[in-house]
Specification:
The structure holds two protein chains of two kinds. By secondary structure, chain A is mainly alpha-helical. Chain A is built from eleven helices and no strands. Chain A is globular, with a radius of gyration of 21 Å. Chain B is of the alpha/beta class. Chain B has a single domain, classed as Rossmann fold (3-Layer(aba) Sandwich). Chain B contains five helices and ten strands. In chain B, strands 6-7-8-3-9-10 form a six-stranded mixed β-sheet, sandwiched between helices. In chain B, strands 2-1-4-5 form a four-stranded antiparallel β-sheet, with no helix packed on it. In chain B, a hairpin with a 2-residue loop joins strand 1 and strand 2. In chain B, helix 2 packs across helix 3, helix 3 crosses helix 4 and helix 4 packs parallel to helix 5. Chain B is globular. The two termini of chain B are about 15 Å apart. The chains are: A mainly alpha, B alpha/beta. The interface between A and B is medium-sized, with 19 and 26 residues.
Chain lengths: ~230, ~240
């Protein structure tokens, strides 16, 4: 118990001292995940919307495929990307392996099925009359879509936050295609795994605290939005 | 009599099937600007489907639409959107203020802010709901929602307004207030098709009664297709 308290105090001290290595890891984490989520959201929400309104052969197969991808282990995604991006792989000439770009691609692939599945649920739960009302009042497809997105904004925000939670805390994919290189591709989860294996618990706990504060902040933000929505309606 | 001899919207050989069942089989129907038509028929006759097809919200199997004298084959969300507005039985108001709801269609038409604000203020006065301007539209009662939806349509001045059971599930007071606005719309000369069980065909404001039976439009008095099987409707003189 004393050890835990002492290590936590050391972790706090590390965070407060502005330790360069520690903050570099945090910066890599946020830089890659924010890029990944921002790039994944537009196409994923569009696919979620199209799957909710369009009826075409193979639609249920596509939905089942996205649902299946939700449970694919991150390390499997990492392995597939590794095979694609390694020198002998079909995309080896791009020299992306062990780069932040590769991490962003991996995190996008991890977030994508969750964003599609959750946005599909949100759009399905929306009143179909919202879309039709927008269209009959003269809105073009894009404007009607943004109107519908506003109507289901809490569901879409939950999709974004759940997906962000998945990619900022994943280890397998980042470790395999990022390589855990200090000041380059070492992010919070890979650093925690490494430091813990070395017995350096203070840094692991400090980084874990950052993740916890982030999770708390995001959930607080969603709750606040939902509360404001309840008050105005 | 119809106030404009040239039909605003002509429908030719419209067919709509659900599976093997032929729901709509209308050979010829003209809707005129400034005319109030009451669409009647038993439950499930296809009244709502017909209105949704006219509004461009529903697919159909076959048919031609003539808009302002020009034939158009349109699918869902056809070219009528700037001329025809459809109001659902339970009108949908966006999760924002009443003002923003009224301004929505004007924004879609890229009207400048000053003019838009003036039009929205007019619409509020027209509906008699100025005191609700800042309220979130989701918090309104059913009758208030219907009146705001009517004002939202009125402000866009469509050639044809399609009202699907506009007074259904309302208490007497709300029904009277909504009916008052519909009467104003008719008096202002807007072309209207109302699908309602509560408005009678002999209502003095109704120019025509369209009876939908077994997919075809019938004359409301002798229940035979006008002009034989082609089902052409001759607009009735205003009754009363």
């Amino acid at each position: 118990m004393t050890d835990l308290a002492q290590t936590t105090a050391e972790a706090m001290s590390l965070l407060m001292s502005g330790d360069e290595r520690l903050w570099s890891i945090i910066q890599v984490s946020f830089s890659t995940t924010v890029k990944a989520i921002l790039l994944a959201i537009p196409p994923a929400f569009l696919i979620g919307f199209l799957l909710s309104i369009c009826r075409f052969p193979g639609r249920w197969m596509l939905i089942s495929m996205f649902n299946t991808l939700l449970s694919v282990p991150t390390v499997v995604v990492g392995l597939l990307l590794y095979l694609l991006l390694s020198r002998s792989g079909p995309l080896g000439d791009l020299h992306l392996l062990f780069s932040q770009t590769a991490m962003v691609i991996g995190q996008m692939l991890l977030a994508f099925p969750l964003l599609v599945a959750m946005s599909l649920s949100a759009f399905r739960a929306a009143d179909r009359n919202a879309w039709e009302t927008a269209r009959t009042l003269g809105a073009g497809p894009f404007r009607a879509l943004t109107t519908l997105m506003y109507e289901v904004r809490f569901g879409l925000a939950a999709a974004g936050i759940a997906s962000y939670g998945r990619i900022i805390s994943e280890v397998g994919c980042s470790m395999m295609i990022g390589g855990n290189i200090m000041n380059h591709t070492r992010n919070i989860p890979t650093a925690i795994a490494l430091e813990t294996s070395k017995g350096e618990f203070a840094q692991g706990i400090a980084l874990g605290m950052v993740l916890l504060v982030l999770a708390l902040g995001l959930n607080f933000f969603v709750s606040l939005m939902q509360r404001r929505g309840e008050i105005t309606t | 009599m119809n106030k404009n001899p040239r039909p605003l919207l002509g429908i030719r050989k419209l067919r709509k099937q659900f599976g093997s069942e032929m729901l709509l089989d209308i050979d010829h129907l003209d809707l005129f600007a400034g005319q109030a038509a009451l669409l009647k028929g038993r439950n499930g006759a296809g009244k709502t489907t017909l209105m949704r097809i006219i509004a461009g919200l529903e697919k159909y199997n076959q048919g031609t639409f003539i808009l302002d004298g020009e034939g158009v084959q349109h699918g869902r969300h056809g070219p009528q959107s700037n001329h025809v507005i459809y109001l659902h039985q339970c009108p949908f108001l966006f999760d924002t203020s009443v003002l923003d709801n009224l301004a929505y269609g004007l924004k879609c038409r890229k009207m400048d802010r000053k003019q838009r604000d003036r039009k929205v203020a007019e619409a509020l006065r027209w509906s008699g709901l100025e005191h609700l301007a800042e309220r979130n539209a989701k918090t309104l009662s059913g009758g208030e929602k219907q009146r705001i939806a009517l004002a939202r349509a009125w402000v866009l001045q469509p050639s044809l307004l399609l009202l699907d059971e506009p007074t259904a599930n309302m208490d007497a007071e709300s029904r009277e207030q909504t009916s008052f606005l519909i009467r104003r719309l008719i008096n202002e000369g807007m072309g209207i098709v109302i699908c309602s069980h509560e408005i009678k065909g002999d209502n003095s404001l109704i120019d025509r009664v369209l009876h939908l039976e077994q997919g075809a439009i019938l004359d409301s008095h002798n229940l035979k297709p006008i002009d034989g099987l082609m089902g052409k409707i001759t607009p009735l003189a205003k009754e009363g």
